[in-house]
Design a protein that fits this description.
Number of strands: 6
CATH architecture of the largest domain: Up-down Bundle
Number of helices: 7
Distance between the termini: 46 Å
CATH class of the largest domain: Mainly Alpha
Shape: flat
Oligomer: single chain
Radius of gyration: 37 Å
Strand order of the largest sheet: 1-2-4-5
Number of domains: 3
Strand content: 15-25%
Largest sheet: 4 strands, antiparallel
Length: about 220
């Protein structure tokens, strides 16, 4: 049994408690002698014991285990890294904006220097319409890979198909350069292929692919 005293402006506090045991918190018996209420006033609080189970702490077996359990922050990816494996998978929106601005600036400067070359102008025009015609190919490949069109807006694809059809019909009727008509037809074919996927995967759905959990995510859970 140990006893300690603490004197404050409210009087003398005498703490009398037993030796605590592991896994328990003891609130000791307190004797209060208040100078405001007189020394004859005695307040006694009975001891209260709160038992708790302390959380188990991980025991490190060595430096290798501690390194594996360490939570590492993801690396920041930037377009200035020039890493082809992480192209267009950058960490900040400003990296995308800077990349687009840099590409536009370089392409504009090269176009300014070669504006008098007919071959350059024709090649640039073909690349422009061909890139536009290939806009639906990533969606087509994604649908084929997942064997599903879940999350894709059918109305959006219908609007694509309508606009591309009208545009291609205009190219064919007004004798525009050949590359416009060819790329227009290619774009319509891509749109029809996506619509065909939507119909086929809705009628003959494939078995859902189980989601693979990343090892780091499993440890976190």
């Amino acid at each position: 049994m140990e006893e300690e005293a603490l004197t404050t402006e409210w009087g003398e506090w005498a703490f009398q408690c037993t030796q605590p045991q592991p896994g328990a918190i003891f609130v000791p018996r307190v004797k209060i002698f208040s100078k405001h209420l007189g020394n004859n006033c005695l307040s006694v609080l009975k001891p209260v014991c709160l038992v708790f189970s302390p959380p188990s702490l991980p025991v490190a077996n060595g430096p290798a285990d501690s390194k594996e359990e360490e939570v590492r922050a993801p690396l920041r990816r930037s377009y200035l890294d020039f890493d082809p494996h992480h192209f267009w998978c950058w960490s900040s929106f400003s990296d995308y904006l800077q990349c687009v601005l840099a590409f536009s600036g370089v392409a504009g400067y090269i176009t300014y220097l070669c504006i008098d070359s007919a071959l350059f102008v024709e090649t640039l025009g073909f690349l422009a319409v061909f890139t536009e015609a290939m806009l639906g190919v990533p969606q087509l490949c994604r649908n084929y890979h997942h064997r599903s069109t879940e999350g894709m807006s059918i109305k959006m694809v219908l609007m694509w198909t309508s606009g591309d059809t009208f545009k291609t019909a205009y190219f064919l009727l007004h004798s525009v350069p050949l590359q416009f008509s060819v790329c227009g037809l290619l774009q319509v074919l891509v749109d029809l292929a996506i619509l065909g996927q939507a119909y086929a995967y809705a009628r003959w759905p494939s078995k859902p692919v189980p989601h693979t959990t990343h090892p780091a995510s499993a440890k976190a859970l």
